[in-house]
Design brief:
The chain is of the alpha/beta class. It has 2 domains: about 140 residues, Rossmann fold; about 120 residues, Rossmann fold, CATH 3.40.50. The chain has 8 helices and 14 strands. The chain binds ribose-5-phosphate (R5P).
């Protein structure tokens, strides 16, 4: 089987091919003078191919579509989209809007598709292919377990992320909780951990995505005001747009832990083993 890494997932594709002992094909990525993308897979394409490409930018998405087309003659095509852009527009929030996640999923032609901690699992239904979502949070949990932390507590910034906090911590015996918002009056809300006390403890806030850093920055301030000791941030997908890193450091985080679904300097946890296992089990 060939592994083909798109431009956004070269390192991850290399790691997966090593784990599977599969042939990593090299591709060329260039731009025409007018800005259009050019892609060519160098070497003979096998009868079974796995393309790995996150779609962080629009160009990444086009690159993925081009790679898929280049592999259209294979017997079996697996597409791994470790981070799928546009997944947060998984429904119409206002009249006249598209369901962008559906538009993106509809453009992917493959036999099998895997995503990792996709923003909403309902998006999987929009793929024509057999689609499944993989969970990288246990790998994040193992990383956290090996850190030297004082009475650690994993916290989800909202109840939507509580499943991430649970999956990252429960098997390792680390406590987890989520922030709970209680409305006190028309214009006052109280936000605090639902069940557990953070005072004096090292806290790891976990979410699926850190994009602008706004959600995390607010959560850091809140936990610090409640007496948390060091506050670390963990996420599956470090989008980290604009000045997010500066914002988070200014807010007082001790460090950011993320996976390599997006290749950033904070991507210290690899999802390669999770992907390799999924491919083995197809
Ligand atoms: C939202 O639904 C997601 O789970 C994240 O909380 C959100 O995408 C984070 O975005 P930002 O970093 O811009 O606050």
């Amino acid at each position: 089987m060939n592994i083909i890494g798109g431009p956004a997932s070269q390192l991850l594709a290399g790691r997966v091919s090593k784990l599977l002992n599969a042939d990593l094909l090299v591709s060329e990525f260039r731009k025409f003078p007018d800005g259009e993308l050019y892609t060519r897979i160098v070497g003979e394409i096998d009868t079974e191919v796995t393309i790995i490409q996150s779609t962080v930018t629009d160009s990444d998405l086009v690159s993925l579509l081009l790679l898929i087309d280049a592999c259209c003659d294979t017997d079996r095509l697996n597409v791994i989209i470790p981070y799928m852009g546009y997944a947060r527009q998984d429904k119409k929030f206002k009249d006249g809007e598209p369901i962008s996640a559906r538009a993106v999923a509809g453009a992917i032609r493959a036999d099998n598709v895997f995503t990792i901690n996709i923003h909403a699992e309902s998006i999987l239904d929009h793929f024509d292919a057999k689609a499944a979502d993989l969970d990288a949070t246990p790998a994040i949990g193992r990383y956290i377990k090996n850190m030297e932390l004082k009475d650690p507590l994993v916290i989800a910034p909202d109840d939507g992320a509580v499943v991430l906090a649970r999956n990252a911590s429960v098997d390792l015996g680390i406590e987890y909780d989520f922030l709970d918002k209680t409305r006190l009056s028309g214009d006052t809300v109280m936000i605090k951990p639902k069940n557990l006390e953070v005072r004096g403890r090292d806290v790891i806030i976990i979410d699926d995505i850190i994009s602008t850093g706004g959600t995390m920055a607010e959560t850091i301030s809140l936990l610090r005001s409640q007496g948390a000791n060091e506050v670390y941030l963990a996420c599956v997908h470090p989008v980290l747009s604009g000045n997010a890193v500066l914002k988070l450091l200014k807010a007082g985080t001790k460090g950011i832990i993320a996976t390599d679904t997006i290749d950033r300097t904070v991507s210290v946890v690899s999802t390669a083993a999770v992907i390799a296992e999924a491919i083995k089990n197809i």
